[in-house]
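Treating backbone geometry as a discrete language has practical consequences that deserve illustration. Part of our work consisted of pairing the sequence of a single chain with a tokenised description of its backbone. We regard such an encoding as a compact summary of how the chain folds. The amino acid sequence and the backbone structure tokens for this protein are reproduced below.
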Amino acid sequence: MTCFDRRDLGLLLLRLGTGGVLAAHGAQKLFGWFGGAGLSGTAEFMESVGYAPGRASAVAAGLAEAGGGTLLALGLGTPAAGAAAAGAMAGASAVHAPNGFFAMSGGYEHAASLGLTAAGLAVTGPGRISLDHVMNHTVNRNWMVPTALAATAAATLAVIGARQARVRSQENADQPE
């Protein structure tokens, strides 16, 4: 039996911490747990920041965070889980970007950190203390990493691009003539 090394323990800590935070944020959106707004409140918020339709956007963000976070914490389907979570965090970063970098002033720092960590885990893999390892990496193949990240990047760019267009259109409509 092979002893776990520092890399495996470090990846476990990153997965548990990042996955746990993401899963909690997703549960806030989907179920209203941990003081969250739940699906209807999140749908309203999504509409208010330019993601439409609001309910579909709330479900997508909630599932990407809760599902991706849970799977990352378990180390299961790590490429898809990390890519989904990274995509959700890119969407959150787009909302916070006008406020600058630091979270203290409403910036994208927190979302970017979670997204980059999730993407990094998708690339590095979960380590040996994971369900992927137990399952002989059936849902963690090397080809899945670029596929999951590319598919998520394409979808994320389309969603954020559509949001940006809606936000610009609304800003133009609000300007006096």
Summary: The two ends are 74 Å apart (CA to CA). The chain has a mean pLDDT of 95. Helices lie at 6-31, 38-48, 54-74, 78-96, 109-124, 131-134, 144-174. Residues 6-169 form one domain.
